[in-house]
Amino acid sequence: MTILHASDLHFGKPHRPAAAEALLRLARTVRPDAIVVSGDLTQRAKVREYRAARAFLARLDPTPVVVTAGNHDVPLYRAWERLFAPYRNYRTYIAPRLDTVLDIAGAGDRPGIRFVALNSSSPRRAIVNGRLTGRQLDFAAGAFAGIPRTWKRVLVVHHNLVDTGDDDPIPPLPRAPHILRRAAEWRVDLILAGHIHRTRLAWSHDESARSPRRGVPVVVAGTASSTRGRGREAGRNSVNVLNVRRSGIEVTVYLYSERASRFQRHDSRDFPAQLYGVHDIK
């Protein structure tokens, strides 16, 4: 099972149309079974930005797309709208529901996958850092409970649940350790996120610990098509291609090359299934 994971498209002023077109070409080359866009489709949640984002997503058909909102997908400066109708444009142009479930059936060595996407944006409480509520976690628990044990479970949020891993820190989502514990209890095999505008491939558990279990693989995508790359990907665009097998998950990072006008393979990492497991996070 192949997943193309992109994030932080930022249709609006910082958007890079050439990188977006390269992402479409990569999708046609990779031919993924599903595409995940983990938030920040727009820069300022304006109607014209949402129309452009919707047109882009339509060009990904017929591949199933999992999408969730990011903090930039709600109004920032339009205070009345942010307080009383923050998701009006998102619901109109992208999806009517904010927390969603999508199933992709498997065959042979290709396991079935259930994607549960949770809206981690929080326009009234934490515009930048986001939140996940207890109700949302209960929604995810119920969604992951009703599938065969052989299926893979993928949790999608916008905000990062692990640190950035470099000297340009962005705090993880509030209550991240609790969310990671819950994800392990749900037997989640993979967490996909964005927000930090650089790639981060990590385990949810401390990799230096003595325990052989590493918990849940956390894969954070950089910005796919904006000028706002940060840290080691400053000014760069990146996406991830994941090969999900019963034996584990291989993640390949692609960086956009302006000279070649395409996304090129850059790095990869394996997450063996035998290292998954429930763990304690202090």
Describe this structure in words.
It is a single chain. With 282 residues, the chain is of the alpha/beta class. The chain has a single domain, classed as Purple Acid Phosphatase, chain A, domain 2, CATH 3.60.21.10. It contains six helices and twelve strands. The strands form two sheets. A six-stranded mixed sheet has the order 3-2-1-10-11-12. It has a six-stranded mixed sheet with strand order 4-5-6-7-9-8, with helices on one face. Strand 1 (2-6), helix 1 (17-30) and strand 2 form a beta-alpha-beta unit. It starts with a strand and ends in a 10-residue tail after the last strand. The relative contact order is 0.17.
Brief rundown of the structure:
The protein has 282 residues and is of the alpha/beta class.
